[in-house]
Amino acid sequence: MALDWMPREGGVKDHNIWGMEHFGTEPPCTMYEEKPIIDPSGKPVEGLYSAWITLNNPAQYNSYTTEMVKGVIAGFHRAQMDRRVVAVVFTGAGHNAFCTGGNTKEYSEYYSTKPMEYTQYMELFNGMVDSILMCQKPVIRRINGMSVAGGQEIGGACDLAVASDLAIFGQAG
């Protein structure tokens, strides 16, 4: 098969600098999953996966919190360093939105009165964009619903976009 050259046996070092502490399943969080690669006959290819990084905050249209930004950075680093991962799918939970940008609730309750903290947050946001841009695996943005504001900004860092027929795109400002 065409993918036989991919290293799959043990004995290779794990170069991840983070564990799974930045991922979760209960919103708001970033989820990280590995899904098997399927060959043309419909069978899973042993030892090869796609990494799915999901913004999980559907009640707030998958707007990202500070902790979710950290999760995205950790997820892209994990996917990049895992030899078994051949591609990354970046998506949002539910059907209403890929992402609507930063979490305005967190902005108003915390960052609105702390400009230096907001500066630090923006450095973290830039790190998130960089982690997507620098990922050495193909990054596919899977758009289900709205992709606006910061969702467009992080989406623009992906290599390819696949959108549902009901996807909505927009940019404020």
UniProtKB/TrEMBL annotation:
Pfam families: ECH_1. InterPro entries: ClpP/crotonase-like_dom_sf (IPR029045), Enoyl-CoA_hydra/iso (IPR001753). PANTHER family: ENOYL-COA HYDRATASE, IP11341P-RELATED. Belongs to the enoyl-CoA hydratase/isomerase family. This is 6-oxocyclohex-1-ene-1-carbonyl-CoA hydrolase.
